[in-house]
Write a sequence for this structure.
């Protein structure tokens, strides 16, 4: 798909936004397989936040090529997309400039990081500063956030 776009618009960089497998369906959209193997309430060693980890994401029991479960691949989807995009741009002789929202350990080899949508208030402005510093400490050379905010009173 990048090649089709490149044939129409010569680009030297790309912003990979919404680059995780998401599902904005309300409730259970798809029936889980009868041989359900992963239950995040039971199988995950920690519980991030207070939300259901499968909220707005595809089922952790989904299976990828090579019989890899979504539970084991979810955190690396953005990484793999950044790597594929990097390799594509290199194949065109372009020095890659990639900003990714979804990242994990090692993503900084292929892309910078955007911290995602936030709200237009001082709490998010304050957390954006510390998030930028943390990503730089972790080795991400280019990182940024929406300093003006995306939700709330953005004026």
């Amino acid at each position: 798909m990048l090649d089709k776009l490149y044939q129409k618009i010569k680009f030297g960089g790309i912003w990979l936004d919404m680059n995780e497998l998401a599902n904005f369906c309300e409730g259970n959209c798809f029936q889980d397989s009868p041989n359900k193997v992963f239950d995040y309430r039971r199988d995950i060693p920690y519980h991030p936040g207070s939300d259901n980890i499968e909220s707005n994401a595809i089922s952790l029991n989904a299976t990828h090529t090579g019989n890899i479960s979504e539970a084991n691949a979810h955190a690396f989807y953005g990484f793999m997309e950044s790597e594929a995009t990097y390799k594509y741009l290199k194949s065109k002789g372009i020095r890659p400039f990639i900003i990714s929202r979804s990242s994990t350990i090692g993503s900084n080899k292929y892309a910078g990081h955007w911290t995602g949508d936030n709200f237009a208030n001082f709490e998010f402005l304050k957390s954006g500063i510390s998030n930028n510093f943390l990503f730089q400490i972790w080795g991400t050379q280019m990182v940024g956030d929406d300093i003006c905010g995306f939700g709330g009173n953005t004026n």
Remarks:
- The longest strand covers residues 13-16.
- The mean pLDDT is 84.
- The helical segments are 2-8, 40-43, 70-73, 77-91, 122-137.
